[in-house]
Design a protein that fits this description.
The protein is of the alpha/beta class. The chain is built from seven helices and eleven strands. The radius of gyration is 17 Å and the shape is globular. The structure holds iron/sulfur cluster (SF4).
Length: 224
């Protein structure tokens, strides 16, 4: 069988304190995402191929080797990391340098996610909407697949954060309630609601009705 193509990297944050709880991390942005969330902050990562600004994974790995002792963790983010065949090898190689491994994902490929999960020490899992409403937010019917991925995550017990971008131009308080009911039904006890930024870059506060609808169903809601 041919070796998987090396990870296509669309960008890198060399030092982050907010992408892996309690750890100093480098963030590797994986190229490619087929979804089209209106609030996407990284539309340049949506095309499958990296732009000229992208870096080859071997160069990123060399750089990571020079960061040993300075960073705790490497977070694979996106785009959508699960789309790339080279993700597993990249995670193993980063772990081989002694780093903890974080993964940011939307869970759109549940079978790949189940394979990859043993390689992750922590997962930031983005839920977009009630499962039957995914097309409305992402342009694709991904909800059933995401539900399967979330079941894998919760069954394995990998430390994780379940979060949702609370874009009230796309989601209503009733959507928040339904999503919270579905997540609580799967065993989620804590949900982070992330504010969305407007075109001017300013955060749009999450509305009280939206928060109240989620709070009624899930043990712990946090705003970010
Ligand atoms: S899933 Fe993430 S990377 Fe893909 S379009 Fe939505 S916000 Fe952007």
């Amino acid at each position: 069988m041919a070796a998987p193509r090396p990870l296509r990297v669309g960008g890198l944050i060399p030092f982050s304190t907010v992408d892996y709880p309690g750890r100093l991390a480098a963030v590797v942005f994986c190229q490619g995402c087929p979804w089209r969330c209106a609030y996407c902050h990284n539309p340049h990562l949506q095309p499958v191929e990296a732009s000229a600004a992208g870096q080859p994974w071997p160069a990123v790995l060399d750089w990571l080797a020079s960061r040993r002792g300075l960073l705790d963790a490497v977070v694979f983010s996106g785009g959508e990391p699960l789309l790339q065949d080279g993700l597993g090898d990249a995670m193993r190689e980063a772990r081989g340098l002694g780093f903890a491994i974080g993964l940011h994902t939307s869970g759109m490929r549940p079978a790949r996610f189940a394979e990859i999960l043993p390689l992750a020490d922590w997962v930031g899992f983005d839920v977009k909407a009630p499962f039957e409403r995914y097309r409305h937010v992402t342009g694709a019917n991904g909800g059933a697949a995401v539900r399967r991925a979330l079941v894998h995550l919760l069954a394995r017990g990998t430390p994780c954060e379940i979060r949702c971008t609370a874009d009230e131009s796309l989601l209503s308080p009733e959507d928040a309630r339904r999503m919270a009911v579905q997540l609580a039904g799967l065993g989620v006890r804590r949900l982070v609601l992330q504010t969305v930024r407007g075109a001017d870059g300013a955060a749009r506060p999450v509305g009280e009705a939206f928060i109240a609808a989620a709070v009624a169903e899930i043990e712990r809601i946090e705003l970010r």
